């Protein structure tokens, strides 16, 4: 599932493959961009912002993409067979003399002026993996609504940019509170904010996330994806439920013993 660490790693891979070279191929396969051609433009950089990707080109143009739930970018060498899904799922192709980047199942793909990037990412809170990470501002935003359930507040990208369902469940477990706990009831919210940043930082270069420190298969995450299986800490069956307003409900995992309700 793409979260901040996945997006950071994707941006790093795209930047390494494309930056500094002019495009020799440009194919944007969404209706509103079907006539747009970036061929010949030099790629300046590819930057992650929370869960968003910003590919910047000379002449002040940015290609903004979002991976959503199952989108991905794959980088291929010349003549290498594309991998990532069937051809009908391809939404973007950016090629240079040395590499071809292919975007699959991208729910968001748009061109905008680089000077107007705030239009699509200006609402985001401090980026957990960004150079301007500000834990104090992230804490202030997280605590702005003390009655809000922690599980909802962590997923709100206006508070901290980069957390998704996996880290939401793991952070609540590590804080020893159920996801529906009001933010204002956290004993040390500043520690949770710091922990969120450390977890994403530690995992940004890994293909397989690890929050437990145990690399054995099936033991890398405390509760996420472990419904009905024993908690790695106490052995109680992990539970699965939903959290959030009706239109935005997302699954959440927790251990009823390690994360008791107040």
Mean pLDDT: 95
Backbone shape = globular
* Helix content bin: 10-25%
User: Describe the biggest sheet?
Assistant: 4 strands, antiparallel
- The sequence of SSEs as H and E is HEEEEEEEEHHHHHEE
Under CATH at level 1, the class of the largest domain stands as: Mainly Alpha
Count every helix, treating DSSP H or I runs of 4 or more residues as helices. 6
Give the number of DSSP strands: 10
State the end-to-end distance: 31 Å
Q: What is the second-level CATH architecture of the largest domain?
A: Orthogonal Bundle
Strand content: 15-25%
- Estimated structural class: alpha+beta
Q: Which topology of the largest domain does CATH recognise?
A: Helicase, Ruva Protein, domain 3
Which regions contain 5 or more consecutive residues with pLDDT less than 50?
Answer: none
Estimate nothing, just give the exact number of structural domains. Answer: 2
Strand order of the largest sheet: 1-6-7-5
Rg calc: 20 Å
What order do the helices and strands come in, and which of them pair?
Elements: H1 4-18, E1 25-28, E2 43-49, E3 52-57, E4 61-66, E5 72-76, E6 90-95, E7 100-104, E8 108-113, H2 118-121, H3 135-142, H4 150-155, H5 165-174, H6 189-203, E9 239-243, E10 250-254
Antiparallel strand pairs: 1-6, 2-3, 3-4, 4-8, 5-7, 6-7, 9-10
Helix pairs in contact: 3-6
Describe this structure in words.
With 262 residues, the protein is of the alpha+beta class. The protein has six helices and ten strands. It folds into two domains: 4-121, N-terminal domain of MutM-like DNA repair proteins (Alpha-Beta Barrel); 135-254, Helicase, Ruva Protein, domain 3 (Orthogonal Bundle), CATH 1.10.8.50. The strands form three sheets. Strands 1-6-7-5 form a four-stranded antiparallel sheet, with helices on one face. Helix 3 (135-142) crosses helix 6. The model has no long low-confidence stretch (mean pLDDT 95). InterPro entries: FPG_cat (IPR012319), FPG_N (IPR035937), H2TH_FPG (IPR015886), Nei2_N (IPR044090), Ribosomal_uS13-like_H2TH (IPR010979), Znf_DNA_glyclase/AP_lyase (IPR000214). Residues 222-260 form the FPG-type domain.
